[in-house]
């Protein structure tokens, strides 16, 4: 139950299965803080069920950076790798079923996997995929209006709009909840059929 790319590479299943016994399964309610900003990340988190957000505090304002759902994995990577204070808070949005693998076992697993001839290519592929995703989001944040960013969300990641509370979506888009309501109202007016006269 480890790593969001597990299902894409079944040839590595023996490694995942070997570390199942070291993973702690937890069931937690919504709004459970799994890692607090400023603390050091000690686990890799795999989501079996639920939704998680990555966020940070900006002068008292809560800013959502990313959302994660079923069969995805996450941690605060810089903190996890360098033992530094996390720049982010990791918090559940929905009641969630999670698997936590302590850092020591993640390192052991990665060491074993590094001996696999195909693993370097797998890591490069997964890293490139994530890098492209974040790059597109970064460009969109600079180039597009909030309305365009919301429309992109509706088109590319509609599950976020369906499952995530509006105030988190507004924070993710870099706008207020009032602004998001206006955008939604404007889009609803555009999509409604015109009155026949």
TrEMBL record:
Domain of life where this protein originates: Bacteria
Occurrences of domain Cyclic nucleotide-binding (ranges): 26-111
CDD domains, A to Z: CAP_ED
InterPro entries to which the protein is assigned, alphabetical: cNMP-bd_dom, cNMP-bd_dom_sf, RmlC-like_jellyroll
One Pfam family per UniProt: cNMP_binding
Name of protein: Transcriptional regulator, Crp/Fnr family
Organism: Mucilaginibacter paludis DSM 18603
